[in-house]
Structures are given as C-alpha cells and as structure tokens.
Write a structure and sequence with these properties.
It comes from Saccharopolyspora erythraea (Streptomyces erythraeus). By secondary structure, this protein is mainly alpha-helical. It contains eight helices and no strands.
C-alpha cells in the first residue's frame, strides 16, 4: 500500500522523486501548475480528499479553484500546463509533466483515493493517475 502524508511523506521527498524520475528542473513550479489544473477539473470534495494524503505544500494548488469543476479533456489539460509553464502550449511537454507529477503523487496515496480521482476524469486522463 502507498504511504500517505500521515506516514510521513515530506514535500522535499516528493520534489526529489519528481526531479529524479522526470528530469524536470523546476519541480516545485511544475507540480504547482499541474495540481492547480487538476484541482480545477475535479468535483466536490475530491481536491481536498486528495490533498489530505499529500504534504501541506501541495494542498493549496489542488484546492485553489472554487466553484464548479471545469469540463475539459486531456488535450486541453496538457496545453494549459505547457502554456502556463511558458512552453507555448506544446501538449507533448504538458503531457510529460502531468504524467511525471501525477505518477509521483500516485506512489504516495491510497489506491482508493486514486480510484476516486480516476472516476472523475475522462479516459485520456486516467492513465496519468497511476504509479
């Protein structure tokens, strides 16, 4: 079973793993962008539920969006990430970074929480939320 925040996952460990797995030079910035976009896509309490299993530093980006969940597909998700990173909206970069951040997170949260997140996302997202 994955270790959650209650089991001591620290933010510095998360950033280190993300950088080692992906080579992302600015893991803090990239993880913030990816989680803000994911949080805007999830409905109800799901952003807070996911954030509850992560270090406190990741809670803000996940729960920043207020109001109804936005409805957009995976391609738009990837484009938004790359655009916000200043990469011209290149969906391949956005997809690689989303996969790296969400894959790293998936290693630290419960399978039940991952399934809750997957259940709210269209097919193009689901494979991103896997360890």
């Amino acid at each position: 079973m994955a270790a959650g925040y209650d089991d001591g996952m620290r933010y510095d460990e998360f950033l280190k793993q993300l950088k080692e797995k992906s080579g992302i030079e600015s893991p803090e910035q990239v993880s913030t962008i990816v989680l803000e976009e994911l949080g805007s896509r999830l409905e109800g309490q799901e952003p807070a539920d996911l954030a509850g299993q992560l270090p406190p530093e990741l809670k803000g980006p996940l729960t920043r969006h207020t109001g109804a969940a936005e409805k957009f597909g995976a391609d738009e998700f990837f484009r938004r990430i790359a655009e916000r990173e200043g990469r011209g909206g290149d969906p391949e970069i956005g997809q690689a970074h989303a996969r790296a951040v969400l894959g790293t997170i998936a290693g630290f949260v419960s399978e039940g929480e991952l399934e809750d997140v997957r259940s709210q996302l269209p097919a193009g997202f689901r494979e991103l939320v896997a360890p």
